[in-house]
């Protein structure tokens, strides 16, 4: 019997609690909602004036596309530049040009020679007409401070082109005493 009485009180408590919540007024909340929009006036800026642009007609259809990698290849194979692949390679053609160093010059009977150091620390004597580097670099001029070359390299679409390069004299500082 005590259990039944205890359950009865629990049920009555829940019913009283629920009825107390439903009797509450929301007048303060309703007042806030009603007053929150007072004094607000919506203002929308007018749309900007639409400007008309001058029409442009693209008429360069016969001009080559600067973004296309294709190039105009000459019609005759004799007109294209190519290195002499049958020519016997010289010793300094076994090294990339950036690994070679000009270390000095010599002159004999009005002919000037350049001294070039290889990565294995040997020094070779070269003259105009010799080849340097792995890009078929023909020596075109030698001065006391530089060696000028004309290299033949392939561009991005495998067309042979000429490129001018220079190997500059490397001056080493002398040890101070």
TrEMBL record:
InterPro entries for the chain: PilP (IPR007446)
Signal peptide boundaries: 1-20
Pfam families registered for this protein in UniProt: PilP (PF04351)
Sorted UniProt keywords: Signal
Name this polypeptide is given: Type IV pilus assembly protein PilP
């Amino acid at each position: 019997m005590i259990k039944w009485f205890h359950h009865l009180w629990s049920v009555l408590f829940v019913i009283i609690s629920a009825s107390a919540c439903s009797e509450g007024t929301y007048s303060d909340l309703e007042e806030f909602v009603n007053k929150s929009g007072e004094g607000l006036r919506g203002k929308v800026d007018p749309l900007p004036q639409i400007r008309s642009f001058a029409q442009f007609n693209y008429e360069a259809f016969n001009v080559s596309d600067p973004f296309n990698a294709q190039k105009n290849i000459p019609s005759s194979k004799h007109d294209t530049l190519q290195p002499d692949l049958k020519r016997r390679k010289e010793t300094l053609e076994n090294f990339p040009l950036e690994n070679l160093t000009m270390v000095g010059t010599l002159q004999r009977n009005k002919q000037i020679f350049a001294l070039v150091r290889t990565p294995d620390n040997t020094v070779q004597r070269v003259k105009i007409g010799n080849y340097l580097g792995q890009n078929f670099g023909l020596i075109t001029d030698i001065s006391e401070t530089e060696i000028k070359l004309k290299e033949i390299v392939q561009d991005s679409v495998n067309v042979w082109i000429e490129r001018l390069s220079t190997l500059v004299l490397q001056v080493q500082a002398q040890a101070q005493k």
